[in-house]
Design brief:
Chain lengths: 352, 428
């Protein structure tokens, strides 16, 4: 019996190797798009997953071929890019600023291949790379304003996954939005979990642990906060769960509209700060597929309130008055005009 | 004192060899040793084969096309099973070792670009194996000394921090001085981080499993503090990464200036260090002391060995090896250090030490296997669309079968091992 089983196992292996030559094939489309993820993996419910949605959209609407390779370590970025280069892909999308060094090296080595990188822009720009960056502070500012208006306790909170600029940009804009509300309305709504002045805040230390998201949310709620914005990918799902159980608190979604992407918690989503990476990736694929495309020419994509690269989702009904909503329209215009400062540029320059 | 003990040991060896000095007895002994070596290789080998077979079942079970084919009929389904598994492991093999026909063709063509592409898979396998060898040796050395070093990951971080600092901050040195200096910096950082739990264990009895785990957390936070935006070692371009190291600290690449072919002198260093660890363990007084403490600390103390001192030495050496693992990644591959450097090597290293039976040669073989799995699985992901998570499944299965050799013996109807062999396996 045992012997038979092991014979079967061995023969399956042997036949497999023999048959390996017959593999391959598949429908060919003229544009091939390859995406290299960061370490969170393709199903991180965060920037990798959102960027991949852009490729999926392009597969459906533009008929391109799209594939992804997941990175498990920093040393995986280069071989993953190599694989796409060797297979003749036309556009290679790298997700996350951690891939910036490798993307730059491969772009220099392969001038005929187009690259797009999420969350990074080169200075000076590289001709065949399109940096996809987002003014998330603009949307977070609006969410902060709305949260300050909607809070019953006069305390709102935010925390991050790891202290990196793509995370803190949410927190800086959020705090500034609350401050602006206080300034306009003579209130004193407090922000827990982040202080731009001190350049310090609460961070889970990872982008994985839902337990951390729950624990931090419970601490914030015990200190009196009733609206919490977790900028930590899947960690935020723990926050949503804690908020749902508490019953009298709300969660602010990040990256995507959580009433749609996380339907389990749609009843406790106050609003969402959307960073439409899928739209940016789709836009880049579309450029490559267009007739007469002559390269990116080193131009970057900056997602703003104007081009809908960033935005806020619908606010939970009954949470803020129509006066607040119309004030938000004015603020939106103010941010676009540059008359309202989201604080991000000042924060960045304070670091260096 | 030390000298005397080693003399004693050699006298004992002399007398034992005199006893078996007749020619046939010697031949018997050699044959027996060979048998033990063969059998000690057999279980890991069969464990690997079985893991791949079960991994194949996982690949089949998670492939939609197989289910679709079975809906068309059993015959179609079975054919599809073989196509899927063949494509998966076929791309796995070419991803790990290259396509033999392509390599031969490229060598005959003499076209440099063609040769580069043909040998790329094997260069990646060697590149992935390099840090594995050091990390595996680190844990194996700890096992030999009876210490379970779970802190290789933290020692890797601290070694990396010190190494990258030496790599970017020192300028104007020739490579022949700067490179060894940067490597030694990695060694020093790792050794320090390892020596602390060793000292705590030796002096206070604090269990090294607890202390090394805690030291890991301190190392992660230390790296974040140093490298986060605005931190003392941050590059200053808004990213949490260190500056690039100077060219004079680069480990020489086999293919200079290639961004894709990253195999470098680190692999030679790894093989050399593996030999040094073997020599240290089996040919020096210190190694004898480490192994004695590992087998029985009470007996070692009775024999006059300072157990706390040996524990500090063991952990420092173990940490030094983990530091070298980071140093070769930084000086040979990345050329900078990111704040989230979660390599996973520290934990894979435990598996490598188990698979290699805590012997340096075994660790090297195990690391080459894991390197091949890493490179092969990546190609399988790209060419056959098998999720990269298959790497963890294969590695996990191999370790399960190594840790429970009874399963393998029952599966392949092997006889029970002799007692001394059992002991040798249990020691890991």
């Amino acid at each position: 019996m045992h012997k038979r089983l092991s014979m079967v196992l061995v023969s399956v292996l042997l036949v497999s190797f023999v048959l390996s030559a017959c593999g391959g094939g598949g429908a060919a489309s003229n544009v091939k798009v390859g995406m290299v993820t960061d370490m969170g993996g393709i199903d991180d419910k965060s920037f990798n997953a959102t960027s991949w949605q852009g490729v999926e959209m392009a597969k459906k609407e533009l008929g391109v071929q799209g594939d992804y390779l997941e990175s498990q370590q920093q040393t995986d970025y280069a071989p993953n890019i190599t694989q796409f280069v060797n297979q003749g892909y036309d556009l290679i999308v790298t997700v996350g600023f951690m891939l910036a060094d490798d993307t730059a090296k491969f772009a220099a080595e392969n001038p005929d291949v187009n690259f797009a990188i999420v969350d990074f822009a080169y200075d000076p720009p590289i001709d065949n790379v399109r940096g996809l960056v987002f003014a998330t502070d603009e949307a977070a500012f609006l969410a902060g304003y709305a949260a300050a208006a909607g809070s019953k306790t006069g305390k709102v909170a935010t925390f991050g996954g790891i202290s990196i600029p793509t995370v803190t940009i949410f927190m800086v804009g959020f705090e500034k939005g609350v401050e602006y509300y206080n300034q306009q309305n003579g209130t004193n709504v407090e922000v827990l979990g982040w202080s731009t002045a001190d350049n310090n805040g609460v961070f889970a230390g990872n982008f994985e642990s839902t337990d951390d998201g729950r624990r931090i949310a419970e601490e914030f709620m015990s200190e009196g906060a009733d609206i919490i914005m977790p900028v930590a990918g899947p960690v935020g799902l723990g926050t949503a769960q804690a908020v749902k159980e508490a019953g009298d608190a709300w969660d602010i979604g990040v990256d995507t509209d959580w009433t749609i992407s996380v339907p389990d918690y749609k009843d406790v989503v106050f609003t969402s700060v959307m960073k439409n990476m899928d739209a940016a990736v789709f836009d880049s694929v579309k450029m490559v597929t267009e007739d007469g495309f002559g390269g990116f020419g080193g131009e970057s994509y900056v997602g703003t309130l104007v081009n809908d690269g960033v935005g806020v989702g619908p606010i939970a009904s009954g949470m803020v008055s129509s006066d607040v909503e119309s004030a938000m329209d004015d603020i939106r215009q103010g941010i676009i005009d540059g008359t309202i400062n989201t604080g991000w540029a000042d924060y960045l320059s304070s670091l260096n | 004192m030390n000298k005397k003990r080693s003399e004693d040991a050699s006298i004992r060896e002399d007398t034992s060899s005199v006893a078996t000095n007749s020619e046939t007895a010697l031949r018997d002994k050699v044959r027996k040793t060979r048998g033990v070596v063969w059998r000690s290789l057999l279980v890991p080998l069969l464990a690997t084969v079985t893991a791949f077979a079960i991994g194949g079942l996982v690949i089949i079970a998670t492939d939609e096309s197989v289910y679709e084919a079975f809906q068309d009929g059993i015959g179609r389904g079975i054919v599809q099973v073989f196509i899927v598994i063949g494509r998966a492991y076929g791309t796995f093999f070419t991803g790990a070792f290259g396509n033999p026909a392509q390599i031969v063709e490229a060598l005959f063509s003499g076209n440099a670009a063609q040769i580069r592409r043909a040998v790329y898979p094997i260069t990646e396998t060697l590149r992935i194996s390099t840090p594995y060898i050091f990390a595996g040796l680190a844990v194996a050395l700890g096992f030999q000394g009876g210490l379970f070093n779970i802190g290789a990951e933290g020692q890797y971080f601290v070694g990396g921090l010190v190494c990258v600092f030496a790599g970017y901050s020192i300028t104007g040195l020739p490579q022949i001085i700067h490179l060894p200096l940067a490597l030694l910096a990695g060694v020093a950082g790792g050794a320090l981080w390892g020596a602390i739990p060793g000292y705590l264990k030796g002096k206070t009895g604090a269990h090294e499993v607890i202390t090394t785990i805690m030291m890991n957390y301190i190392a992660y936070r230390l790296a974040e503090f140093m490298l986060d935006v605005g931190g003392p070692m941050a590059r200053g371009d808004g990213r949490p990464v260190s500056p690039e190291i100077q060219l004079s600290a680069y480990l020489p690449q086999f293919f200079p200036n290639r961004v894709d072919l990253r195999v470098n002198a680190g692999i030679f260093l790894a093989l050399g260090v593996a030999w040094v660890v073997w020599w240290l363990l089996y040919r020096t007084t210190v190694g004898y002391e480490i192994r004695t403490v590992g087998k029985n600390p009470d007996a070692a103390r009775y024999a006059g060995i300072s157990v706390p001192r040996v524990m500090v030495i063991t952990m420092a050496l173990s940490g030094a090896l983990a530091g070298l693992s980071a140093a070769t990644d930084i000086l040979g591959v990345l050329h900078f250090m990111p704040n989230s450097f979660f390599s996973g090597y520290g934990f894979d290293a435990i598996a490598l030490a188990l698979l290699g039976n805590s012997h340096p040669a075994g660790v090297v073989l195990a690391s080459l296997l894991f390197g091949a799995i890493g490179a092969g699985a990546r190609n399988m992901q790209g060419m056959a669309h098998v999720p990269i998570d298959i790497t963890s499944i294969l590695q996990g299965l191999i370790i399960v079968f190594i840790a429970a050799p009874a399963i393998i013996r029952a599966l392949y109807r092997m006889r029970e091992p002799e007692e001394d062999e059992e002991l040798a396996l249990a020691r890991g």
